[in-house]
Write a structure and sequence with these properties.
Layout: H1 8-17, H2 24-40, H3 43-51, E1 55-57, E2 60-61, H4 63-71, H5 80-88, H6 96-102, H7 109-124, H8 130-136, E3 142-144, E4 147-149
Antiparallel strand pairs: 1-2, 3-4
Helix pairs in contact: 1-2, 1-3, 5-7
Length: about 160
């Protein structure tokens, strides 16, 4: 009850319609509204709405703003490694801007191991080929003065777009 246990739809409901108070009454409301939403809206649309309202850093809401803030490009142009980073910061989004200021993702083994787990899921579900996954490794992210540094110095497939988020 204290942490976790909510579906993406329930989290969307909480973010859009309810308070963040932790009570049984709020949880019941959350479940009932989420059930109604799943009857009317596709899972893909729920995920789109969710990604456009969640926090990716202090006062940084929505995948579009996060994509521009961390990688200077729109979400449609993210590489798998960049998408993995955004997925990994979800449990504690307020720590991510600190990584950007420090110039890199954590050098700890758990960070790399978790990134690999997510990459393997992307392969399993055929979002990324094994060859593309190999090109993404290592999965470290680096910045210089707040600007994203392209992996392997290669930006041929992914262009920078400096449009407003």
């Amino acid at each position: 009850f204290v942490y976790g246990g909510s579906t993406v739809t329930q989290q969307l409901v909480k973010n859009l319609f309810l308070t963040r108070s932790k009570s049984i009454a709020r949880k019941i409301q959350e479940v009932l509204i989420a059930k109604r939403i799943t009857q009317k809206i596709s899972r893909r649309r729920v995920l789109e709405l969710y990604l456009n309202c969640i926090e990716f850093g202090r006062n940084l809401y929505g995948i579009g703003r996060a994509s521009h803030y961390y990688f200077q490009r729109p979400p449609t142009r993210l590489r798998p490694r960049e998408s993995i980073f955004l997925a990994m910061i979800k449990p504690a989004p307020r720590h991510a801007p600190r990584m950007r200021r420090r110039g890199r993702t954590p050098p700890f083994a758990y960070w790399q191991a978790r990134a690999e787990v997510i990459l393997e899921r992307l392969i399993k579900h055929e979002f990324v080929s094994p060859e593309e996954a190999d090109d993404e490794r290592p999965l470290d992210i680096e910045w210089s003065r707040g600007r994203y540094i392209e992996p392997h110095g290669n930006d041929s497939e992914f262009e920078h777009v400096d449009e407003a988020p």
